[in-house]
Amino acid sequence: MPFKVGLTGGIGSGKSTVAEAFVALGAGLIDTDKIARRLTTIGGEALPLLADAFGAGILAADGSLNRALMRQKVFADAAARRRLESILHPLIRAHSLAEIAASHAPWLLIDIPLLVAVGREAYALDRALVVDCPESLQIERVMARSGLAEVEVVAMMSAQSSRAERLAIADDVIDNSGSLADLQRQVAALHPCYLKMASIQDASGQDMSKNRR
Predict the structure, then answer these.
(1) Taking the model in full, what pTM does it have?
(2) Cα–Cα distance for residue pair 41/44, rounded to 1 Å
């Protein structure tokens, strides 16, 4: 089994930029958001289950998931969000584990936005990496890229795990409150550390998750 680092961070934290930087250095990437989108496109495995749970009205005219309507439902209703997660999480995990087993990368970055809720044990992670920045900067970034009002962004953030909860599970933290160059320096410093841990694990079979800081 490859050495696995779970990547998480709040909306607007820059998690995708960090993932791209690691991939450019040679890391493998399992993107659970992309898996979720595949499961909810036309013919996706999750669509019949979601339609049963939430009604056929959550499907768009072309038969795919009406994502805007689904977001409205789950942001407004914690029970609906838990119902959605109970359907999607097991499917996402099963597809992710299949991709992990098929990977030949020197080590794997697994992008899991809901890592706090899902738990590192679900993916047998060796490390948890959190991309962090002040919440005010998250709001500013999301507003700039999406055109959403501040109140909408805050509502989205409130539906996620808190900054403190994410930091509490972190083995490693990338501070993305500065420049892109600063972020890339941090990625470049961590990559050889993960390569070394992966090689030790390969040589000894040692569970690196026991070496958490």
Answers:
(1) 0.88
(2) 5
